[in-house]
Specification:
By secondary structure, this protein is α/β, with parallel strands linked by helices. The model has no long low-confidence stretch (mean pLDDT about 100). The structure holds beta-D-ribofuranose and calcium ion (CA). InterPro entries: I/U_nuclsd_hydro_CS (IPR015910), Inosine/uridine_hydrolase_dom (IPR001910), IUNH (IPR023186), Ribo_hydro-like (IPR036452).
């Protein structure tokens, strides 16, 4: 089993990413950590707790992390995720209790006390991972691989920048320069991970709580993407960062050097991708959409 820490800002697609990991027999979630992003930190943490309840992750610590980016003011995405960060399904008061310790302390402890090196899957702004790099570089070096959803050769939050990188570009700059082995699922690949009508119908038929929750998430997500971006089918970004760890053969990759723009007047948060001479970042550029949804469907069937 691959031991993982899930660092997220749930977020519709973050929750689906968590379900994909939780329902797969090859993944062992050691902690869920939250960050400000799609909504403020109180809401992303509440949403993570609700998702953990729904996935039956009773024993997995859920820890709250950074409430704002390193330098900038917080950026949220209510136009996509609603005011709650998770509009659509009913959000009950969670039974799962949040950890008392800060997310970065929990990450540090998991990394230092595990026998095996840990994979970190980051599907929100990279604030917590950057803080970990600064606080305890030795712990950060125990990250076997960091799989991120972020960046790409085009933007969705500005013409140049993808939301997760834009929301904390200074953090992303620290992380990309850290030397941690990184796999990146940017918009180029996540915009192939579209939820078709038939996939949504297939999920609706699965008689588990997690599947019903996912159906309600996708229903809202589809309408939000149509309104905000005029896309008929929504790209379901974050589970790509989990699938790439579970089944790399579903993807094709390019090696690249990636720099993050933090000074540009119109390009703040852009990932500047150089593939001319290879580089340390593995960028996923193509995905087998059918098999990707097959993985998600199977996990949803395995969950409560
Ligand atoms: C990313 O931004 C968020 O709104 C989604 O959860 C995803 O992580 C896509 O740009
Ligand atoms: Ca996210």
């Amino acid at each position: 089993k691959t031991p993982v820490i899930m660092d997220m800002d749930p977020g519709h697609d973050d929750v689906i990413a968590l379900f994909l990991a939780a329902g797969h027999p090859d993944m062992d979630i050691r902690a869920v950590t939250t960050v400000s992003g799609n909504a403020d930190i109180g809401k992303t943490t509440r949403n993570a707790l609700v998702a953990a309840d729904t996935a039956g992750l009773d024993k997995v610590p859920v820890a709250e992390g950074a409430g704002r980016p390193l330098v900038r003011m917080p950026e949220h995405a209510p136009s996509i995720h609603g005011e709650s960060g998770l509009d659509g399904p009913a959000l009950p008061v969670p039974a799962h209790m949040v950890e008392e310790r800060h997310a970065v302390d929990v990450m540090e402890e998991v990394l230092l006390h595990s026998e095996e090196d840990i994979t970190v899957i980051a599907t929100g702004p990279l604030t917590n991972v950057a803080l970990l790099c600064r606080k305890n570089p030795k712990a950060a070096r125990r990250i076997r691989r960091l799989s991120i959803m972020g960046g790409g050769t085009f933007g969705n939050w500005t013409p140049a920048a993808e939301f997760n990188i834009y929301a904390d570009a200074e953090a992303a700059e620290i992380v990309f320069a850290s030397g941690i082995p990184i796999t990146m699922c940017g918009l180029d690949v996540t915009h192939q991970a579209l939820a078709s009508e038939s996939v949504v119908e297939r999920i609706k038929e699965i008689p588990t709580m997690a599947a019903q929750f996912t159906y309600e998430l996708l229903d809202h997500f589809q309408r939000a993407y149509e309104e905000r971006f005029h896309l008929a089918l929504p790209p379901v970004h974050d589970p790509c960062a989990v699938a790439v760890c579970l089944a790399p053969s579903l993807f094709t990759f390019e090696s690249a050097d990636v720099k993050v723009e933090t000074a540009g007047k119109h390009t703040y948060g852009e990932t500047v991708i150089d593939t001319t001479a290879g580089g340390p970042v593995q960028i996923a550029v193509d995905i087998d959409n059918d098999k990707f949804w097959g993985l998600i469907v199977q996990s949803l069937k395995n969950l409560p």
